[in-house]
């Protein structure tokens, strides 16, 4: 969970190939607190970057934006879900009145412009009123989906601190190798956690950016200053991300002890051809090597409360078989207190550009059936809210009919 949407993430990753217990089951205690809630999850991502899911377009009135948000929450209830994961910091900005970063441009069309209401505060209140949990979804390091700092709001931290910023792939990123950046992004994110009774803190799949052919992420100066003692730049970069994860986990627990901290990475840690501990896949992207995110270690060391690998491929897909990846992640989670949920590609169902398996309304339902074979799988999260609203071929309706026959258990 840089590219503009998860759909773009998956398309780009797939182009490189070959070169999110079922809720009806009783949750099992796992010895690690998180969210003050049951260990299962029936979730949906609600993306705001570039208006992916919500708001439907910039410049809507506060009343219109609120009405659309409520519609998404009500739909989650109708589909017998229990969790909405709302993207509240898509591009170094905020969907709440932050003292650290400007209002998001995706609300009004102008970064820094007050939308006239508090989207995150409203979302938490209205979700809880409906028996839903609300996880606040943050992107730690993406600054902009363009490469022009002058387009950022006046006073933006990236304009005040240009040495924090790396231009890469036509986009702007904060440099994860700078300790002051790591501290700042945590402060900016934890402000929301301190202000609102969110049930969870959620990162997507962006750490170091996805590779762009022919381009180099220029962190030479930071590496020269901070990279001593590491065997190479890749190890130093992984340590930078490990520090972000460990520090954020610790701060979340101190600021809001009942909130869970979870991450939704790209679905392949490493291929078995690269590492015997890896999955039987031929992925063109490996989080350990390309994003410098050691997602398996975070699970094995129980650094995070939950993980939602984006297993956005169909059962039997040659380069990345859903069944093989569920099995691999279940093995990785076995013995850990990190809860495993599976990220599901609802957006692919009925998309004519996708393989034949995705034209079958039962494909997603089969995913949940298969996952029941693994006790470590505690639930599923669907990408994303707009696709749930459209449900082109009834794939989500089939999931609800086959697996969510009863309303989700009430939070406790």
Automatic annotation (TrEMBL):
Pfam families: GHL10. Residues 1-25 form the signal peptide. Residues 41-354 form the Glycosyl hydrolase-like domain. The keyword Magnesium does not apply. The keyword Signal applies. Coiled coil: none annotated. Keywords: Signal. This is Glycosyl hydrolase-like 10 domain-containing protein.
């Amino acid at each position: 969970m840089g590219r503009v949407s998860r759909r773009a993430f998956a398309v780009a990753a797939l182009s490189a190939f070959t070169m999110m217990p079922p809720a009806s089951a009783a949750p099992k205690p796992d010895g690690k607190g998180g969210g003050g809630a049951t260990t299962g999850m029936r979730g949906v991502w609600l993306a705001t970057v570039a208006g992916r899911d919500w708001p439907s377009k910039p410049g809507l009135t506060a009343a219109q934006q609120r009405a659309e948000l409520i519609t998404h929450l009500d739909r989650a209830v109708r589909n017998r879900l229990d969790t909405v994961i709302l993207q509240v910091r898509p591009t170094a900005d905020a969907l709440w009145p932050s003292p650290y970063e400007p209002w998001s441009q995706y609300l009004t069309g102008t970064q820094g412009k007050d939308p006239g209401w508090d989207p995150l505060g409203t979302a938490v209140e209205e979700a809880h009123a409906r028996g839903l949990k609300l996880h606040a979804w943050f992107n730690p390091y993406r600054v902009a989906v363009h490469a022009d700092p002058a387009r950022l709001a006046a006073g933006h931290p990236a304009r005040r601190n240009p040495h924090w910023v790396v231009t890469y792939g036509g986009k702007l990123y904060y440099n994860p190798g700078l300790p002051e950046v790591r501290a700042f992004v945590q402060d900016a994110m934890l402000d929301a956690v301190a202000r609102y009774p969110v049930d969870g803190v959620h990162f997507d799949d962006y750490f170091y950016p996805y590779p762009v052919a022919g381009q180099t992420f220029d962190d030479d100066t930071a590496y020269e200053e901070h990279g001593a003692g590491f065997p190479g730049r890749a190890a130093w970069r992984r340590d930078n991300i490990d520090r972000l994860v460990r520090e954020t986990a610790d701060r979340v627990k101190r600021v809001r002890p009942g909130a869970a901290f979870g991450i939704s990475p790209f679905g392949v840690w490493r291929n078995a051809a690269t590492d015997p501990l890896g999955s039987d896949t031929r992925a063109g992207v490996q989080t350990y090597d390309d994003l410098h995110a050691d997602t398996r270690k975070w699970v094995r060391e129980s650094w995070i409360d939950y993980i939602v690998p984006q297993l956005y491929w169909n059962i039997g897909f040659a380069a990345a078989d859903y069944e093989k990846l569920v099995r691999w992640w279940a093995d990785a989670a076995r013995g850990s207190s990190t809860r495993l949920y599976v990220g599901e590609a609802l957006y692919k169902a009925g998309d004519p550009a996708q393989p034949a398996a995705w034209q079958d309304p039962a494909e997603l339902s089969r995913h949940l059936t298969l996952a029941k074979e693994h006790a470590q799988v505690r639930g599923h999260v669907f990408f994303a809210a707009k696709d749930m609203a459209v449900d082109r071929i009834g794939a989500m309706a089939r999931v609800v009919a086959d697996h969510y026959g009863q309303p989700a258990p009430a939070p406790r």
